[in-house]
Design goal:
alpha+beta, Aminopeptidase, 27% strand, five-stranded antiparallel β-sheet, three-stranded antiparallel β-sheet, 6 helices, binds coenzyme A, 180 residues
């Protein structure tokens, strides 16, 4: 495990997750409206030690093949209110969620912009493969706003069994640089 860079945006601080974030992550993440859109490997009902277990897994590869930031509002810097999870390798390279009370203010777009910049500059990613459950319009909008290219739809399993496919997108370094 290694420390990862702290990123800042207009309204947010993104800090590498630590075990101390477990209680806030547990509180904010244990919400079916968040978890239903995530891959079926996420347990539901969410167990009381879910955040702690997630953090233990993540911290084993933090700064190596995985970069997981907790999101803090500059106005409330003690409460981890969401996550952006960036991963090297084939398949999906990024996941994210935000506490429901904060949706619809452009905060995740802001966080993803900072992480995308960091992935293409400091970390040397050439492209990001991005996915969202078909029907997850908020997540889809974040890809559209970033200028990602829609590739195709594939079968996929989510916590919500009514979601059976995901949309696959690609964002490459040149497209991102041109946009920025
Ligand atoms: C997806 C999520 C992180 C979005 O966070 P957010 O901070 O609200 O996102 P933003 O405000 O930056 O962008 C959301 C976009 O969706 C739009 N949107 C909001 N509600 C919408 C709705 N009901 N239908 C369609 N679009 C909607 C917003 O207007 C915004 O687009 P705009 O900037 O063009 O107006 C948050 O909803 C979440 O945690 N969802 C559950 C977990 C999840 O889906 N994770 C992603 C898995 S791929």
């Amino acid at each position: 495990m290694a420390d990862i860079a702290e990123l800042t945006t207009a309204r947010l601080i993104l800090r590498g997750v630590t075990l101390a974030d477990a209680p806030a992550i547990q509180r904010n993440f244990d919400d079916y409206e968040i978890i239903r859109y995530l891959a079926a490997v996420v347990p539901w009902p969410y167990p009381p030690d879910g955040a702690h277990n997630f953090l233990n897994v993540v911290l084993a590869s933090q700064g190596d093949t995985r970069w997981v930031w907790a999101l803090f509002l500059k106005d409330a810097p003690e409460e981890a209110a969401g996550i952006v999870d960036l991963r090297h390798g084939e398949g999906e390279n990024r996941g994210f969620w935000l506490a429901r009370r904060l949706w619809g203010q452009g905060l995740m777009t802001e966080a993803c912009d900072a992480v995308t910049d960091y992935a293409f500059t400091a970390l040397g990613f050439e492209k990001l493969t991005l996915c969202n459950a078909a029907g997850n319009t908020r997540s889809r909008r974040i890809k559209e706003k970033a200028g990602a290219t829609f590739l195709h739809v594939e079968p996929a399993s989510f916590v919500d069994p009514a979601l059976t496919t995901h949309e696959v997108w690609e964002l490459n370094r040149a497209t991102w640089a041109a946009r920025r």
